[in-house]
Amino acid sequence: MLLDYLNLDETAAEPLYQQLYRFFCSAITHGQITAGEHLPSIRRLAEDLNVSRTTVETAYQQLCVEGYLESRPQRGYYALALPLTPQKSSAVQRVSPAASAPKLRYRFSTDSIDRRAFRVELWQKYIREALSHQEIITAYGDHQGEPELRSALAEYSHSVRGVTASPERIVVGAGTQPLLFMLSGMLRRNDRMIGMESPGFVQAEQVFADCGLEICRLPGDESGIRLDALESSGVRIIYVNPTNRLGSGSPIPMTRRAELIEWAARRGAMILEDDYNGELRYSARPIPAMQSIGSGDNVVYLGTFSKVLLPSVRMGYLVLPPSLASVYQERSAAYNQTASRVEQLALARMIREGELEKQLRRLRKLYAAKGELLLCCLQKEFGSAIQITMQETALRVVVSPGIPADSAQLCALAAGQNVQVLPFGENELPGRVLLGFSGIAQEDIPEAVHRLSLAWKTKI
Amino acid sequence: MLLDYLNLDETAAEPLYQQLYRFFCSAITHGQITAGEHLPSIRRLAEDLNVSRTTVETAYQQLCVEGYLESRPQRGYYALALPLTPQKSSAVQRVSPAASAPKLRYRFSTDSIDRRAFRVELWQKYIREALSHQEIITAYGDHQGEPELRSALAEYSHSVRGVTASPERIVVGAGTQPLLFMLSGMLRRNDRMIGMESPGFVQAEQVFADCGLEICRLPGDESGIRLDALESSGVRIIYVNPTNRLGSGSPIPMTRRAELIEWAARRGAMILEDDYNGELRYSARPIPAMQSIGSGDNVVYLGTFSKVLLPSVRMGYLVLPPSLASVYQERSAAYNQTASRVEQLALARMIREGELEKQLRRLRKLYAAKGELLLCCLQKEFGSAIQITMQETALRVVVSPGIPADSAQLCALAAGQNVQVLPFGENELPGRVLLGFSGIAQEDIPEAVHRLSLAWKTKI
């Protein structure tokens, strides 16, 4: 039987569940386990291998998540059929994490982090600390967010992004969407139309649509939404992603930011500033948040910790201008807090002790190095044939190798060399792809780029 | 000694350290502790009060920061002389709204739990376990909810509530509201009107309003929404709280549940079944969830862990009928998961190991005993003068002592005896109040009821 060939090495650095996971991955990929085959139960396999059930369970779970196995209730685990070609990733944005396709060895994805850049043990410590207070976990927290976290965020957002906020104007939530839902509910009292650039962040659009806001797509230029289009559209609410624009990836420059702020003040309009990755600029000083320009009365600032905190932590915050803060206060009892209380307190502590800013400095340094290495390798392998646009805070580059293949074909060719790249743009020729460098290990970059050149040179 | 008067209330929402802090503030302000007095050491006070040292330390630190105490190295803590007017706490924003009204000693509130009924250490263990897996906390989770939690919930909801669900039709979220937001977004494609009883659950209403759904209030009778009113209203979506109706508090009986299901099937309508506290019936078997009656095709089941899990954990789940499950699948990439990944995995483990059901059995037994004791004490103290309605799954009784006072006056009289009761109903005579018994300690019930009789008898 196949499992007879399974030798787990207890002395290896690699965790047992990981060894087990790799074994099954390989067996399924190579057809030694076929689609529909029933796998041994967790209990039996644990006994056979003399490991804990948790080890087996963790391996199975990972295999389920990645689309190798499925769990059928009351029946157990079954191998799945693998698609012949790797599945297309549909969303360019903060892509669906549990992307169901089997993982390729070298992944220029945009949804992962560089694990080694995080002091995971520190986060574990803060969580354990918050968890040890019985009175914290046995009581409801503050609807608006834990007061300690809100006051830590007031200082942090000022220090990192120039945002002016008092803790009473900060509302914490489990990431962007729950906060945008609440905000849309407040805004739709007066206005039902929201302007945004195209393409926009799909998860924000979904919320606006769910709340019955009509989305008005505003034409933009290199610097963002065009003022003349804005004026003639009649919209009085706009949603912007100033640092991490999805289309061009280039940030809205200071001048356009000021123009937008001036427009909002003049019209009594509201700007929703989603500062996704705003703190991550590393080649130069970050451009200050729009909220920090002028009075801040016409801006709702939305902060997250996307790439700076661990991805498993769901946390974001709004800084409301005074007018909306009072609307919020009136209805605050009608909204429950969505973020975990323990995680809120852990984060508050991490900020207070300066560890979040340290983490940010570490990441800026790391991403600067990785980005530079990636550009360097691309130029070395491809020479002048390739077109490259660096999208710094988005932690990715847009690449066109200039061969007669569209975006999807480029992705497929890369996958043939065990490299994941992401489709970008329409099905035009020559096609372009996205290479995210947040997750890939620095030392893997040269080999991954070399493989891309093998993949794409065959067509050149 | 002064400290003999110090009663910490472990069941209060207010943290222990905060209670301790308030006690010392007040004692120093009122001169019961005088300037220069040596306070007990952290260790000793912690032992005397049977609380953790951290609790005492936190309180002492806050007192130092605010100028009530000073810490002398190697010697301990000493009270300081106060300026003539007591210092105002500078950190107004750090005070949670919950703490702004002085807490009464005996609290028949509905928003607290009986701390001693929870095996807090077990939850801590599960969290620590999930937290120890690096690969879990350094990666994004599944948008829909962790697969192992979804499969645990499929079994749990079936076992406890008769719900028929497969893990693919379950969507996890950080409590009721984020799930209702998403659901409202899906429903509003076809219908903009939602029917509900009056009064309805305010946090659900807020979400529906935020999503631009028009709320149609349907008249009800003892058994819930009236069928004739439903038929003539034209609504095709209704929101119900079958076990925990806010008005009467009595559950929708099986016959009316069946009638509503039959209506929905006939009209192709959708019933949102918010099963809040549905699992908590203890005097008899719980009435099965509406989702478990008939095909389930016209019901969205919403499950939470309100009083069964710790209040600091934000977690709920939807069971979608097949028609909505496919709508969800199409847009699942557009919704991020809101619940903490670590907490999801901890809960999955707790369910798998049977500990959640054990917890539920413990609570049913405890609440049965507390409810009975409360009824017994009320009858003993008030005799036949009082009208009592037990709202079992809501863990509360409605009481009318039959005196010429309205609801607000009854609350104020009770507060005069250091007992918190909640207003109920309009300002009619004789007034009624709510007594929640989830949070109050069992041994406090006789004294609290005795105080109510003192409070109200003066008026009789």
Percent helix of chain A: 25-40%
Largest beta-sheet characterization of chain A: 7 strands, mixed
Content-based structural category of chain A: alpha/beta
Q: Mean pLDDT of chain A, as a whole number?
A: 85
Strand order of the largest sheet of chain A: 4-12-11-10-9-5-6
Task: State the largest interface.
Answer: A-B, 87 and 86 residues
> Would you report the number of β strands of chain A?
17
Low-confidence sequence ranges of chain A: 83-100
Q: What oligomeric arrangement do these chains adopt? A: homodimer
> Judging from the principal axes of the Cα atoms, what is the shape of chain A?
globular
Kindly report how far apart the N and C termini of chain A lie: 46 Å
- Gyration radius over CA of chain A: 24 Å
Q: What is the count of helical runs of chain A?
A: 15
Strand content of chain A: 5-15%
Kindly describe this structure.
2 copies of one chain form a homodimer. Chain A has 460 residues and is an alpha/beta fold. Chain A has helices at residues 16-29, 42-49, 53-65, 120-131, 134-137, 147-161, 176-187, 202-210, 227-233, 254-267, 322-331, 341-352, 355-382, 407-416, 445-457, and strands at residues 69-72, 76-79, 106-107, 170-173, 193-196, 214-217, 220-221, 224-225, 237-240, 270-274, 299-304, 316-319, 387-391, 396-400, 419-420, 422-424, 432-436. Chain A has a 7-stranded mixed β-sheet with strand order 4-12-11-10-9-5-6, sandwiched between helices. In chain A, strands 13-14-17-16 form a 4-stranded antiparallel β-sheet, covered by helices on one side. In chain A, α2 packs across α3 (53-65) and α7 (176-187) crosses α8. The two termini of chain A are 46 Å apart.
